[in-house]
Amino acid sequence: MFEMKNEGDETSTKKKNEDFLNKLDADRNKKGCEYAVLVSLLEADNELYNTGIVDMSYKYPKMYVIRPQFFIPIITLLRNAAVNAMQYKSELAVVKAQNIDVTNFENELNDFRESFGRNFRLASEKFKAAVDSIDKSIIQLQKTKENLIRSEDNLRIANNKADDLTVKKLTKNNPTMKTKFDEIEEK
Q1: Cβ distance 131 to 52 under 8 Å?
Q2: Cα(181)–Cα(140) distance, integer angstroms
Q3: What is the pLDDT of residues 76-95, one digit of tens each?
Q4: Pick from 82, 84, 7: nearest CA to 38
Q5: Helical pair 71-97 and 102-164, crossing angle rounded to 10 deg
Q6: Over 59-89, what HEC string results?
Q7: C-beta separation of 186 from 180 below 8 A
Q8: Prediction pTM value
Q9: Nearest to 73 by CA among 41, 47, 39, 45
Q10: Which end of the chain has the smaller Cβ count within 10 Å, N or C?
């Protein structure tokens, strides 16, 4: 089950992601969904939600909070988990048909959970690294932009000074040069 939340700029009261988790869990259970995902633009400044896929299983089982840019990756992760789960269900039917010990199945299921958790953790780390890299690039580009703007200002000031320069201003405090230029003017 997916639920999307976006708070408009005109909203006077700011909602938090956790305000919607209890209802999302109840809706998920009522509809018989295994996973619940809140896709949210709420709490835009909260670093926890900005780093990637946030596992909320400490409060609600199989629940995640993500930003919209992680929508496709979580669908892929959940799809892969479902495909693997179906594969394991198929294997379970074979195991039951062959009367193989249930302990082997439990071990395989635990291996799957560990593997899924490891893959999920690795994917989250790669998402975070990519976001960090983008943030560093943005900061560097902003510094370059500021330096270019300062250079343009200095060139404009120098150009204004050059445009304002006259012979009269150059000879103002130099009597020798003033006399020479006055003589040239008289001739």
Answers
A1: yes
A2: 53
A3: 988 898 888 888 888 878 77
A4: 7
A5: 170
A6: CCCCEEEECHHHHHHHHHHHHHHHHHHHHHH
A7: no
A8: 0.46
A9: 39
A10: C
